[in-house]
């Protein structure tokens, strides 16, 4: 967990407090924000740190296998069950079971998990004896469970059980101050992995990294760093090496300035419009289409920013899904 922005520090402070509270924790955050890292931070800062941390991707488990994966099975439970097998809950006994993408659980799987959370008791498939596991449950989702409950896709009683404590991990666009720090860190990681020399970012490249919206968050940044490192021969990673043209879409380049036809005043006017268009496009991408957040980032009044967006025909909706 690396960062120094206020949003990141607030989330980390919550993680440290929750480590000492031995109850279920729900971690919310967009894809790539580091939810498993946050879960590990809770586990390894808690009294359970010497016991297992078992991660499981709920979206990758078939509905007909969920009870077998969670609770295990006894010998002879079904045709191919030639020997007993421990479930993930048993492997996490005394430690932490991390349920990533918990919102992907089917209705049947939700019932099975709820039954365990009510009293920490479970029964292996094909087994007669009830067993007890005191594994701590930390779950994560990239959607809002309350909205899933309202839509009838998630059980409200299970949501209450998982949501004893909740922490939201901020997306990278809300912690832009951390981007240079993370970019330098990942360069070091890549250099070590590839056994290559340490490299550094140019000012232009860092500026482009900072203004990008990062829809894939930290995971996307890590991949960009890898590509940039591989494409750079020298010690300085320049703007083009990281393919950072994605920070300005092709249709956001603005009008072309033709010095042979335009007067100085006209050329200046076109240059200003081109700058405004590029700046506003980058700003709205960074703010995720939120005009109020963009106004705060740019130090502009919301009404004035709205007029500029209208002037350039920039629709904010196109940035909200990125």
Automatic annotation (TrEMBL):
Biological process according to GO: regulation of DNA-templated transcription
Domain spans labelled Sigma-54 factor interaction: 1-230
InterPro entries in the record: AAA+_ATPase (IPR003593), AAA_lid_NorR (IPR058031), Homeodomain-like_sf (IPR009057), HTH_Fis (IPR002197), P-loop_NTPase (IPR027417), Sigma_54_int (IPR002078), Sigma_54_int_dom_CS (IPR025944)
Pfam families to which the protein is assigned, alphabetical: AAA_lid_14, HTH_8, Sigma54_activat
Keyword DNA-binding assigned: yes
Single Gene Ontology MF annotation: sequence-specific DNA binding
PROSITE patterns membership: SIGMA54_INTERACT_3, SIGMA54_INTERACT_4
Keywords, sorted A to Z: ATP-binding, DNA-binding, Nucleotide-binding, Transcription, Transcription regulation
Official protein name in the record: Sigma-54-dependent Fis family transcriptional regulator
Source organism of this protein record: Dyella monticola
């Amino acid at each position: 967990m690396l960062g120094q922005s206020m949003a990141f520090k607030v989330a980390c402070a919550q993680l440290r407090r929750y480590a000492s509270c031995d109850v279920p924790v729900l971690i919310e955050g967009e894809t790539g924000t580091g939810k498993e890292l946050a879960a590990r931070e809770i586990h390894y800062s808690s009294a359970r740190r010497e016991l297992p941390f078992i991660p499981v991707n709920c979206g990758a488990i078939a509905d007909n296998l969920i009870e077998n994966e969670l609770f295990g099975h006894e010998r002879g439970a079904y045709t191919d069950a030639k020997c007993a097998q421990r479930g993930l809950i048993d492997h996490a006994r005394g430690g932490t079971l991390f349920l990533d993408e918990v919102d992907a659980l089917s209705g049947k799987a939700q019932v099975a998990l709820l039954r365990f959370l009510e009293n920490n008791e479970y029964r292996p498939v094909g087994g007669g004896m009830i067993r007890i596991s005191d594994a701590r449950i930390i779950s994560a989702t990239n959607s809002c469970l309350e909205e899933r409950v309202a839509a009838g896709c998630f059980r409200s009683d299970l949501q209450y059980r998982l949501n004893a404590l909740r922490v939201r991990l901020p997306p990278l666009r809300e912690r832009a101050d951390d981007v240079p720090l993370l970019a330098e860190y990942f360069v070091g990681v890549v250099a070590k992995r590839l056994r290559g020399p340490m490299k550094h970012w140019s000012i232009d490249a860092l500026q482009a990294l900072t203004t990008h919206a990062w829809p894939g968050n930290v995971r996307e940044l890590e991949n960009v760093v890898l590509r940039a490192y591989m494409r750079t021969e020298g010690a300085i990673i320049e703007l083009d090496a990281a393919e950072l043209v994605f920070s300005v879409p092709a249709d956001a380049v603005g009008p072309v300035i033709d010095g042979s036809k335009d007067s100085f005043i006209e050329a200046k006017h076109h240059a200003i419009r081109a700058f405004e268009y590029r700046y506003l496009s980058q700003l709205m991408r960074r703010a995720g289409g939120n005009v109020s957040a963009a106004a705060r980032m740019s130090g502009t009044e919301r009404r004035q920013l709205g007029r500029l967006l209208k002037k350039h025909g920039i629709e904010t909706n196109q940035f909200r899904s990125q």
